[in-house]
Amino acid sequence: MTDLLLKNIRPMGRETADILIRDGKIAEIGAGLDAPGVVVEDGQNALVIPGLVEAHTHLDKTTWGMPWYAGRKGGVLQDLIDNERNERVPLGLDVHRQSMRHAIALIGTGTTHIRTHVDIDTDHGLSLLEGVLKTREALAGMIDIQIVAFPQSGLMVRPGTLELLDAAMAAGADIVGGLDPSSMDRDPKGQLDAIFALAQKHDAPIDIHLHEPGELGAFTMELILERTQALGMQGRVGVSHAFHLAMVPPARIEALMERIAALDVSIYSTGHPSANVPSLKAMRAAGIRVGIGCDGIRDTWGPWGEPDMMHRARIVGMKNGFRRDEELELLLDTASGAGAASIGVAGHAVAVGSAADLTLLAGETLAHAVVLQEPRPLVIKGGAVVARAGHAVIEAP
Amino acid sequence: MTDLLLKNIRPMGRETADILIRDGKIAEIGAGLDAPGVVVEDGQNALVIPGLVEAHTHLDKTTWGMPWYAGRKGGVLQDLIDNERNERVPLGLDVHRQSMRHAIALIGTGTTHIRTHVDIDTDHGLSLLEGVLKTREALAGMIDIQIVAFPQSGLMVRPGTLELLDAAMAAGADIVGGLDPSSMDRDPKGQLDAIFALAQKHDAPIDIHLHEPGELGAFTMELILERTQALGMQGRVGVSHAFHLAMVPPARIEALMERIAALDVSIYSTGHPSANVPSLKAMRAAGIRVGIGCDGIRDTWGPWGEPDMMHRARIVGMKNGFRRDEELELLLDTASGAGAASIGVAGHAVAVGSAADLTLLAGETLAHAVVLQEPRPLVIKGGAVVARAGHAVIEAP
């Protein structure tokens, strides 16, 4: 593991100090540190925060670095899903190459942890997973990648998918995924019983895409919470999007959030600009573990997005109507330290004893850094420099 | 006026051609043009569109280029208005300097026309207007600036403001502004009668901020439409924000949009991420003239925004759930040619006879250019190069 002396940085925006890293962990934080023989990096008075955490994305989907894809469709969710499943091969979307491009761009912009969903379906089997597994291996030590085996095309409606999810978990996926058990799969009890059983079998966490609106989404959330409690899976279940938490009446939202917090279910939000999204402040105030994510980046679904958690933080912040410095600081925490906790990575902090996964930011204060469109001066993973001036130290394919 | 031969560009994404500019106007578009003695610019195969149009901003408010402002407040609209009015002087917000920074940054990002609101209130009199008038004069020929005399702190609730608006129009403002005649001013009939009379007196157009929600906003909109019709002000009235057009029932929205189109009232949208915003596609389909704007940039109200209409177009596009190429092209048109029409600038096009106000964009296609975060290669105003590689040819103060 790596030793490094990081000089002249402002930990969490506090006064200028140095950070000594020993064996990939933060050994000391203080002024005027000295460590003979240890490599020195001058932070030039940049801010330093725990590395950014991408809590919800799809490394297997992006067209980043490919020619412009002009075939995007309108329509309902099912149309977008079908379009992608049918276009992957003709488009030449090589998942290993594309997930490398995506993940390396995230390293360049200061991300140290990714949770990615990977499509598992009866057309592609485990081939997409294999591409992302190769990427995880290739980037080991530079970025941590958690993989969700994600039944994008449906579970109950596509026989054979459950067996593939089982195989995906055996092949190296970390987390059992789910998708709109009611609206998409038409059988909420069926899907949820199946994925909770699979999670129990593999002793794995769960992460469910839940776009379902209003009371339908609230009903499905209740089914998830019931199973979390009954199976003792507190702290191991996550729900992505949860638009219903911005659509049902305020008292119902409050009661749901209270129960979500009590059962320690994480919520992942992308601040989806054209959807209703749950209030970040309300979730944090309720004690819910929350992470944020970019979701798909320039994929067959949509043209938007940048592989940059600061870009996404701004979208989430604008969506939440944040204005004040304390709100921007809450946002930055959700994109880094608190975001890590939401995906089960504890102790992600600029603190002695923590892993030296650190991102330097330009800016006068943490709040200023949130809105400033500047490259990250330096990114450190396990004590090693993995990016400088907005670019990862390795080239993307 | 200026002559220029712009070689190797793709007009509106079509095949590569040249554009010959004579006396500030587009004289010829074609392949292999030659014009002895005329200065040549090589467009290096960039796309070219009519210059971007900022249809709703506040040049008198930005802290751009100043130290980070940490004093932003929460609360209701009135709190934000009061905070700004009280903080302008202690903050040292020099309106001429700040509006120069803001407008020059807009030139650098490819904007050729701005409509700006400028606060007129009984605390500051016309002093903020004077700062923006100086900027307009200093940048004459580089960017066109329309000025709305804007009663930000209220009209009926602050006696003396109407007289100041009158004086502002005499001093050089072009457009009579208004603000939430019901919710803010508590007297919709009073405010609207006053500003329509003032517009008649100065033979000037009107532009009204209308944030009012739901049926209240629809009611105020009806009052505006009634006066537009009664006074024969078709084509000279604009309404900014119009959130109610995304809040009342669909049939009511449709009927309102039909009447707005029939009376040729323009709508300006900022794609406000945390508000309900009217559908850009529905407005355009109804035949309404629509422009988009960045609104305030990093001002005392909020930390967000960039002085860049392509950045704003992406926000508006994401908010509208646009995915397909034709939607991105509609968006780009609303930010340029159609946006110009919405502020009364006709014939803003890449066409023979049009003013040579042109913005070059990187990208494979127009749709690609919308999502690509790249500097504008070249910006031309009246045939003169005013920006290169993302930077205006003059320095900001």
From TrEMBL, chains A, B:
Pfam families: Amidohydro_3. It comes from the Bacteria. Residues 40-386 form the Amidohydrolase domain. NCBIfam families: PRK05985.1. This is Amidohydrolase family protein. It comes from Pararhodobacter zhoushanensis. The lineage of its organism: Bacteria, Pseudomonadati, Pseudomonadota, Alphaproteobacteria, Rhodobacterales.
